[in-house]
From TrEMBL:
<protein>
    <submittedName>
        <fullName>ABC transporter ATP-binding protein</fullName>
    </submittedName>
</protein>
<dbReference type="GO" id="GO:0016887">
    <property type="term" value="F:ATP hydrolysis activity"/>
</dbReference>
<dbReference type="InterPro" id="IPR003439">
    <property type="entry name" value="ABC_transporter-like_ATP-bd"/>
</dbReference>
<dbReference type="InterPro" id="IPR027417">
    <property type="entry name" value="P-loop_NTPase"/>
</dbReference>
<dbReference type="InterPro" id="IPR003593">
    <property type="entry name" value="AAA+_ATPase"/>
</dbReference>
<dbReference type="GO" id="GO:0015833">
    <property type="term" value="P:peptide transport"/>
</dbReference>
<keyword id="KW-0547">Nucleotide-binding</keyword>
<dbReference type="GO" id="GO:0005524">
    <property type="term" value="F:ATP binding"/>
</dbReference>
<dbReference type="Pfam" id="PF08352">
    <property type="entry name" value="oligo_HPY"/>
</dbReference>
<keyword id="KW-0813">Transport</keyword>
<keyword id="KW-0067">ATP-binding</keyword>
<dbReference type="InterPro" id="IPR013563">
    <property type="entry name" value="Oligopep_ABC_C"/>
</dbReference>
<feature type="domain" description="ABC transporter">
    <location>
        <begin position="9"/>
        <end position="263"/>
    </location>
</feature>
<dbReference type="GO" id="GO:0055085">
    <property type="term" value="P:transmembrane transport"/>
</dbReference>
<keyword id="KW-0472">Membrane</keyword>
<dbReference type="GO" id="GO:0005886">
    <property type="term" value="C:plasma membrane"/>
</dbReference>
<feature type="domain" description="ABC transporter">
    <location>
        <begin position="313"/>
        <end position="552"/>
    </location>
</feature>
């Protein structure tokens, strides 16, 4: 690394004007990042880490903030050092995207919904690199291949809503790295990604850093990612820097109590070794829990057999169906009452589609779904509406699933107005009780979604899912975007409710450490099929399928001395899930390797 820093932040202060007076987003923050160095900024929601990154890009003023003090010094490739605080917007436009790239946290809001992926990817290349249309398109295809998006040529013609959350995030990463910037700011870039894609993206960023001397400011709440990526670490709390040091120093001898609490809240793969049942996590500032393990029952509650969901691909002037996306193919599993079955796998493997198909939020093409003796797929509209009392869903993005124009109390009460299970004069009391149950103050009943943090909004989503006292909850990446301490609280809440109410969870996640903590049974999905299924202890401690082994190998460890390098990653390219009309894949054939532990043996596997 060179001695001269690429970027230096000096005594930065950012302020937001609100009806209640000015709010300080960042106060007196100073740090620098050198060429070829990765600086990780860690902290929870509201700590000021994203505000700091937006200030560096001079985008914070478009979000209602003002830089009130400090300097943002950036060493340009040609033209020497500039203070970004005093740069006009014309100069910033030449720097953004070209010399400073940024990966935004929320890809659905960062990508323009009315432009194709190809147009958005090539825009920066044509502006900053002066590439022609064909050259920019060829480079865009290369970028999508680098971030492991299958069928990159076809993706260029698609719109953001046609891609999964993980794929949208990979498009954002490709856009940020398109012009090989001198400084890359990555704001939670791998939050929505599964472990295999995350491992490859981290390795890609690390390789580019070494090849080009690019500096990286990496913002995250995942301490395992910090251990994998960081050279130095800045810890932020309430808009201030509370600790800074080399990554080995921060992990070995953290000085600040907040840093110690962050490290203590990280669920670690292997913590549940030898324990067949889920147990509550130890929360920051608390001693070990003494709760009983959650055993559940042996009574089958949800039985899925041969579930198949495909999406038509329409082409030509008359929009004829010429192929199908085989999103879920011949999926079978059983979930017992009071237990948790985790569906894990890469982005685009079909796990979310499987969860939605079980609830008939998407209509499957074939299969059988039996919920407590009721055949869900054979129900008519009215009968299905009544059956939904028993089954609810917690969506991945709580902000997207909540109505911004209605109060939180009204939204939690809405299911009770749709299904008159309670007298109207008792609804308000039950909603208030639900807020107590998810540990939210009753004063929040009259607040709106934007007034809460991400973790608090997820608690509201859980309260709404519990309103009708369901027996099955499908949790789709319910804690993936939460800070580690908030994640621990929400997971403990879900497990406490399971023990108390006998809930059954279909837990969809890409976080293997969280899955190990909460699940009784695990089903590993790859390309629409379950490739391995069994008790959690058997799958995690004795994985048999090559894909399961690759997933577990890719999980980052919260220990800087155990970093993985790119050559350790051995992932095969993902085949296309699109097949022509008339194609019928072979059925799934499994081998039982131990009681309840089965592995896919047919050729359609990994």
């Amino acid at each position: 690394m060179l001695d001269s820093p690429i970027a230096r932040v000096e005594k930065l202060g950012v302020q937001f004007a609100t009806r209640g007076g000015p709010v300080h987003g960042v106060e007196d923050v100073t740090f620098e990042v050198n060429p070829g160095e990765t600086l990780c900024i860690v902290g929870e929601s509201g700590s000021g880490k994203s505000v700091t990154s937006l200030a560096l890009m001079r985008l914070v003023e478009f979000a209602g903030g003002d830089i009130t003090q400090g300097r943002l010094l950036f060493e340009r490739e040609a033209g020497g050092q500039v203070d970004l605080v005093r740069s006009d917007q014309a100069q910033m436009r030449s720097i953004r995207g070209g010399e400073i790239g940024m990966i935004f946290q929320e890809p659905m809001t960062a990508l323009n919904p009315v432009f194709t992926i190809g147009r958005q990817l090539t825009e920066g290349l044509r502006l900053h690199e002066r590439l022609g249309r064909h050259a920019a398109r060829a480079r865009a295809v290369e970028l999508l291949q680098e971030v492991r998006i299958p069928e990159p040529e076809r993706r260029l013609g698609q719109y953001p809503h046609e891609l999964s959350g993980g794929m949208r995030q990979r498009v954002m990463i490709a856009m940020a790295m398109a012009c090989r910037p001198r400084l890359l700011i990555a704001d939670e870039p791998t939050t929505a990604l599964d472990v295999t894609i995350q491992a490859e993206i981290l390795a890609l960023i690390d390789r580019l850093k070494q090849e080009t001397g690019m500096a990286v400011i990496f913002i995250t709440h995942d301490m395992a990612v910090v251990a994998q990526m960081a050279d130095r670490v800045v810890v932020m709390l309430n808009g201030r820097k509370v600790e800074e040091g080399e990554v080995t120093q921060i992990f070995a001898t953290p000085q600040h109590d907040y840093t110690k609490a962050l490290l203590a809240a990280v669920p670690k793969l292997g913590d549940m070794r030898g324990k067949p049942y889920p147990e509550l996590m130890r929360l920051p500032g608390q001693g070990p829990t003494h709760s009983e393990p959650i055993r559940g029952s042996d009574r089958p509650f949800l039985t899925v057999h041969g579930l198949t969901t495909r999406f038509p691909v329409k082409t030509g002037l008359f929009r004829r169906t010429t192929a199908y996306v085989h999103a879920v193919e011949d999926v079978s599993f059983t979930l017992n009452a009071g237990r948790t079955l985790a569906l894990v796998g890469e982005s685009g493997c079909g796990k979310s589609t499987a969860g939605r198909s079980v609830l008939r939020l998407m209509e499957p093409m074939a299969g059988k779904v039996e919920l407590d003796g009721t055949d869900i797929l054979s129900l008519g509209d009215e009968a299905l509406r009544r059956a939904r009392i028993e089954m609810q869903m917690i969506f991945q993005d709580p902000f997207g699933s909540l109505n911004p124009q209605r109060t939180l109390g009204a939204q939690v009460a809405e299911p009770l107005h749709n299904y008159p299970l309670l007298p109207k004069d008792e609804i308000a009391d039950w909603v208030a009780t639900l807020f107590d149950r998810v540990e939210l103050p009753r004063s929040y009943l009259n607040r709106y979604p934007h007034e809460l943090s991400g973790g608090q909004r997820q608690r509201v989503a859980i309260a709404r899912a519990l309103a009708l006292k369901p027996k099955l909850i499908v949790a789709d990446e319910a804690v993936s975007a939460l800070d580690v301490s908030v994640q621990a609280q929400v997971l403990n809440l879900m497990m406490e409710l399971q023990a108390e109410l006998g809930l059954s969870y279909l837990f969809i996640s890409h976080d293997m450490a969280v899955v190990e903590r909460v699940s009784h049974d695990v089903a590993v999905m790859y390309l629409g099929r379950i490739v391995e299924r069994g008790p959690r202890m058997a799958v995690f401690e004795d994985p048999r399928h090559p894909y399961t082994k690759a997933l577990l190998q890719a999980v980052p460890v919260a220990d800087p001395s155990r970093r993985r390098v790119e050559r350790d990653l051995n992932f095969r390219p993902i085949p296309s899930p699109i097949h022509p009309v008339g194609y019928e894949p072979e059925p799934s054939v499994y081998e039982e390797v131990s009681p309840g532990h089965v592995v896919l043996t047919s050729e359609c596997g990994y």
